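Hey forum,

I'm writing up a methods section and want to include a predicted complex as supplementary material. The small molecule is NAP. I've pasted the protein sequence and the SMILES. Can someone with a working setup run it? I'll credit the forum in the acknowledgements.
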Amino acid sequence: MRYLDIYPQLHTSQLILGLMRINKLTAPALDTLIQTALDLGINYFDLADIYGGRGRCETLFGELLKRQPGLRNKMVIQSKCGIVQDDDRRNIAFNFAKDYILQSTDDILQRLGIDQLDVLLLHRPDTLMEPDEIAEAFNRLEAAGKVRYFGVSNFNRGTHELLQSAVKQPLKVNQLQFGPAFASLVDHSLRTNTHLTGSPDRDGEVLDYCRLHGITIQAWSPFQYGQIAGPFLNNPKFKELSDVLAEVGASHGLTATGAVSAWITRHPARIQTVTGTTNPARLTEIAAGIDVNISREEWYRIYTTLDRDLP
Ligand SMILES: NC(=O)c1ccc[n+]([C@@H]2O[C@H](COP(=O)([O-])OP(=O)(O)OC[C@H]3O[C@@H](n4cnc5c(N)ncnc54)[C@H](OP(=O)(O)O)[C@@H]3O)[C@@H](O)[C@H]2O)c1
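Reply by user p_vandermeer:
Happy to help. Structure tokens for the complex are below, copy them as they are.
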């Protein structure tokens, strides 16, 4: 396993286990998954208050921490707030109001049964946000010892800079979707000043901004295509990509699944992979990819497979 020091005093694995899907697991299966993760050297666990609906995944993870209290101090626990959902789990608003952030964090801690979150992320930009209000909320959470570090998710460069101008804590994480079948983070800069597909700058060059400022990108849903439409591996629509990943992987002793994490890790931005697998064997394959260095040619071969022409 490779490790990063994103914040001072926070030594974290480059592979993060996302817990968005653990509501489908039994308690023993969850115990096995988490123990497998720890045995593989994964120490970073990602949640959000909406996962599973109304905090269900946090509740289940909190029950695990109660069953095995010794695990908490081996873990970096991250959660997110700011998305408001209705009873059918549709996003109906975003809310970065001070009181909303404070209450959401208290609720997260209560469900997890812990006193302090290691990292709190604002989940999706709220265009009605008042940066000074967020700053006040973060100061109160930090002063009360409820949150150690803060970050954002799905932010473009401008919104990140705007918020950072008001908030004194460094916002050193931006969680964004990225993977071989969803690569808009790199599409634009490879096609600057061309008419090729992918040339419009949809992300405000967030990748270069993060590299410039030492912000860690956490790549969510790396095995999915579209907006979490389903896994692309072994999907007939993505046969060529699956085949290329299998071939590149095999030349490094990895499966196609492991080649995905190797592809993300190969980028010099030191991106973290956030997988949401609930399968310990698959997690082991993904972890193996983190330690492998694929070549530049292999990286571009995987990238260009989905009709992504280079200029
Ligand atoms: N910040 C955000 O807005 C945001 C949005 C979405 C997710 N996230 C975070 O990102 C994490 C990962 O998201 P995700 O669960 O969509 O990620 P993912 O790792 O891309 O997908 C995992 C899902 O794909 C299935 N799958 C099937 N074949 C697979 C293969 N060969 N390799 C890997 N998975 C395969 C898994 O099934 P098995 O369980 O059977 O392996 C699981 O259901 C979440 O848990 C959450 O923490 C963040």
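Some notes you might quote in the supplement: Residues 181-212+233-269+278-311 form one domain. The first strand starts at residue 3 and ends at 7.
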